[in-house]
Design a protein that fits this description.
The protein is of the alpha/beta class and 227 residues long. Helices cover 36% and strands 9% of the residues. The chain has one domain: Rossmann fold (3-Layer(aba) Sandwich), CATH 3.40.50.300. This is KAD4 kinase.
């Protein structure tokens, strides 16, 4: 485990690679990845909900409509899982709204916020080609990360599905909604001087800059080349 506390979140529109960045941060810096998306799947689908070995925040996409504001909602159930202080690799997809950001403030003070800025056309292509395994949340992209056998999950052999909001006709509206909702969250963290923005079309090219930033805050356990 890392020897220094770090509190961070990763912000970005759907399809921006938040989950991939979060997983790499967890591996490279010895941090636990607590997934808000996994928490929702377990809460709604009967998973055990256990979070082993530390409990920082992390997450996966596709949960925006479920992560409602307010302590009587799923958000209210998720926040108590985040201890303060905590070792935090990344919080992907959370907070999505200003209300969620203020709720997170009650738990801890963030050290940094990573914002992924990906061009609209890239996001549209990524989302339209994205298929998921409903049981685990594993994500495949038919362009650059396809399953071994078309249409089925690599580990279970179960059918993959395309989320309704990943269908081409829904993507544009989804991205516009994210932009409107995320703007005040981004402005909040920018005003605090903890926002770090990274732009590009490929996660592999953005990652070295994220790694360098995190390395200035917390000692890595893996080199960039080992990740």
């Amino acid at each position: 485990m890392a020897s220094k506390l770090l509190r961070a979140v990763v912000l970005g529109p759907p399809g921006s690679g938040k989950g991939t960045v979060c997983e790499r941060i967890a591996r490279s810096f010895g941090l636990q990845h607590l997934s808000s998306g996994q928490f929702l799947r377990e809460s709604l689908g009967g998973g055990d909900g256990e979070c082993p070995r530390g409990r920082p925040v992390g997450g996966s996409g596709g949960t925006g409509s479920c992560m409602m504001d307010g302590f009587g909602s799923i958000l209210g159930a998720f926040l108590p899982l985040i201890p303060a202080p905590f070792h935090c690799g990344a919080c992907t997809g959370f907070p999505r709204t200003l209300g969620q950001a203020k709720a997170l403030d009650r738990i801890c003070e963030l050290d940094l916020v990573i914002s992924l800025n990906i061009p609209f056309e890239t996001l549209k292509d990524r989302l339209s080609a994205r298929w998921v395994h409903p049981g685990s949340g594993r994500v495949y992209n038919m362009d650059f990360n396809p399953p071994h056998i078309q249409g089925v999950d690599d580990l279970t052999g179960e059918p993959l599905v395309q989320r309704e909001d990943d269908r081409p006709e829904a993507v544009a509206a989804r991205l516009r909604k994210y932009k409107d909702v995320a703007k005040p969250v981004i402005e909040l963290y920018k005003s605090r001087g903890i926002l770090h923005s990274f732009s590009g079309t490929e996660t592999n090219k953005i990652w070295p800059y994220v790694y360098t930033l995190l390395s200035s805050k917390i000692p890595p356990v893996l080199s960039d080349e080992e990740n």
